[in-house]
UniProtKB/TrEMBL annotation:
Keywords: Metal-binding. Signal peptide: none annotated. It comes from the Bacteria. This is Phosphoesterase. Belongs to the metallophosphoesterase superfamily. YfcE family. PANTHER family: VACUOLAR SORTING PROTEIN VPS29. NCBIfam families: yfcE. Its cofactor is a divalent metal cation.
Length: 162
């Protein structure tokens, strides 16, 4: 399964549309995960993506729910959160602990606007797609993650830049 993971669009859809168009040329996107700070895009995500969508609320989403979600993709348990409540800007220990506690193999989070993939000693993988609209990492390139579930085997993650 081909999964696109984005975060922190902050009400903008220009780069999200570009990324979807680019990835759709290569291979069909089967699922879109948005990790919060949608800021009003939640109502049109299904239309924009053209595939099933799961999202969680971020610190800029007001009363939007849910703030976290546990899903299964090709037999792989996935924990989704924006990350601000787990203070991911300072340390990933709470994120790692919560992912493990939820019984998930992958913990997706956003909030920092910096892409990274961490394979933890505890056996979980923590993945942040960065921000597709407001990047903060060196070079300030909009980023997202493409995940191939490898038919339920070991998932393959790739950080993509626009």
């Amino acid at each position: 399964m081909n999964v696109m993971v984005v975060s922190d669009t902050h009400g903008r859809d220009f780069n999200l549309l570009r990324a979807i168009e680019l990835e759709s040329k290569e291979e069909k996107i089967d699922l879109l995960l948005h990790l919060g700070d949608l800021c009003g895009l939640e109502g049109m995500l299904h239309t924009i993506a053209g595939c099933p969508v799961h999202y969680v609320a971020g610190n800029c989403d007001g009363v939007l729910q849910p703030s976290e979600k546990l899903i299964e993709i090709d037999g792989i348990k996935v924990y989704m959160t924006h990350g601000h409540r787990l203070q991911v800007g300072g340390s990933l220990l709470r994120m790692e602990y919560t992912t493990k506690e939820k019984g998930a193999y992958i913990g997706f989070y956003g909030h920092t606007h910096v892409p990274r993939i961490d394979y933890c000693d505890s056996g979980v993988v923590l993945v942040n797609p960065g921000s597709i609209e407001r990047p903060r990492q060196s070079g300030f390139r909009p980023s997202y993650i493409m995940m191939d579930t490898n038919d339920g085997g070991e998932p393959i993650f790739e950080i993509k830049y626009l």
